[in-house]
Design brief:
6-stranded mixed sheet, 258 residues, binds adenosine-5'-triphosphate, Phospholipid/cholesterol/gamma-HCH transport system ATP-binding protein, 4-stranded antiparallel sheet, alpha/beta, nucleotide-binding
């Protein structure tokens, strides 16, 4: 974990008169899982969408692998597109396509024979921990947890270096959420990914993240380990990292470590 793979400098994002980010700076280091936390509406998902090029900030610069995301040439865009995988909050699967077809969607831009595409899709489906027959099912036939795994399989479709996960454990029961945390950590370590992970889930921070960035007051207020952030003197940060839920998550981690 040495050099930054993503840099954000002086980011200002606004919708009409409503300013979401103002003077936001952040680096994501190669090989880390960076957790992004912050109160509701602080602009975590908006930041994710800005990095992957779906939103353009009013000011500032975002680079991914040294490429300025919002001023990239066609060739650079294609390069970035191949390097990134995104799992959106609700899975964002196409309901009229099977899981396998959903995973094949990002592969369509590659010139691959249909049989190879489908084999690759099945590999990603199994990497995401889905059973062998999940590929032929439609999203409506899957549980919420399975849909999330299908969304993860699609994010992995192009063997990305960088994976963006928006609230991966939201809506999962605690056991399903811990399994998903382990899956993310395992895949990151095995595949050497860098992960930008938006979450409210304290257990996920403990189980997965190397470092955490806190969004507050329209910027990144602090970055660090959970221990470092617990000592920050800011009302929201203090309550989040020292409140009853934080203590419960810490005790659970301590029990696992015993
Ligand atoms: N396309 C848009 N047009 C107008 N406002 C938007 C748009 N997208 C997001 N916003 C606003 O930007 C703010 C930040 O939204 P965002 O979804 O990033 O919050 P968040 O920190 O991810 O919140 P949560 O934790 O509740 O998911 C919100 O007030 C939201 O309403």
């Amino acid at each position: 974990m040495s050099d930054p793979i993503i840099t954000m400098r002086g980011i200002r994002t606004q919708f009409g008169p409503k300013v979401i980010h103002d003077g936001l700076d952040l680096d994501v280091m190669r090989g880390e899982i960076l957790g992004i936390v912050g109160g509701s509406g602080t602009g975590k998902s908006v930041l994710l969408r800005s990095i992957v090029g779906l939103l353009t900030p009013a000011a500032g610069q975002i680079t991914v692998k040294g490429i300025d995301v919002h001023r990239a040439s066609g060739r650079e865009h294609a390069l970035l597109g191949r390097s990134l995988g995104v799992m959106f909050q609700d899975g964002a699967l196409f309901s009229t396509l099977t899981v396998r077809e959903n995973v094949e969607v990002p592969m369509r831009r590659l010139d691959l024979p249909a049989g190879v595409r489908s084999e690759l899709a099945d590999l990603k489906i199994s990497m995401a921990g889905l059973p062998w027959d999940a590929g032929g099912k439609y999203p409506s036939e899957l549980s919420g947890g399975m849909r999330k795994r299908a969304g993860l399989a699609r994010a992995l479709a192009l063997d990305p270096e960088l994976v963006f996960l928006d609230e991966p454990t939201a809506g999962l029961d605690p056991i399903g959420a811990s399994e998903f945390d382990r899956l993310i950590r395992g895949l990151t370590d095995t595949l050497g990914l860098t992960v930008f992970l938006v979450t409210h889930d304290l257990d996920t921070l403990h189980a997965c993240c190397d470092r955490i960035a806190v969004l507050a007051e329209k910027r990144v207020l602090a970055t660090g380990s959970i221990d470092q952030l617990r000592r920050i003197d800011h009302p929201w940060v203090h309550e989040y990292f020292n409140g009853p839920r934080a203590r419960a998550a810490m005790e659970q981690t301590a029990r696992k470590d015993d």
